[in-house]
Amino acid sequence: MRLLDAFDDLATDLRAAADPERAPAMAAYMKDHFEFLGVASPERKAVQKPLLRAARGFSIDEVLDVADRCWEADQREFQYVATDLLRAQANRLRPGDLDRLRTLVSSKSWWDTVDALAAHAVGTVVANHPRLQSTMDEWIDSDDIWLARTAILHQLRRREHTDERRLFDYAERRAADAEFFIRKALGWALREYAKVAPDAVRSFVHTHEHELSGLTRREALKHL
Known about the structure:
mainly alpha
């Protein structure tokens, strides 16, 4: 038994659950960047349970191989399975696996998969292996907006353990960026940190109000 055998079963079950009438609306929500089977999130999560359960008994290399196979599939639901799988196995990821995660971030890229990878798989492996922070320091300056967005969001779940200096530094470095997905990510990251350090975020935004976009400022201060 290989984990890829479990993936084959997953693929069969996922396609059996397809609802062609629902697929066009799901694709439209993602600006028609991707093809969909038409499997809603609750049904997909039910179908993927055996795969996620089986993954516990296999190596992280085999888990990543299945994630790669999911990424090769044409339908977007497979990529969602991969992000959930990697989230469940995030604590097993090793420093060398960051390169494989980078490939996933940089291919078939859109906010739905990138944000899941950033906050969970990438965020966890960097938190568990702090030397990888230097890689985030490289990604934040990348011309690939999805790598930069990942660097911005990788601390999203750290709360009081957030590296405040690094978060604010990243915000300053991308403050002038005209890209919507960068501006939105900056605001989101600052808003999440504001839940544990409201005064620090408020002070940062006010100090840099002429550098940060209106979108970033509004998002950052939304609940302050």
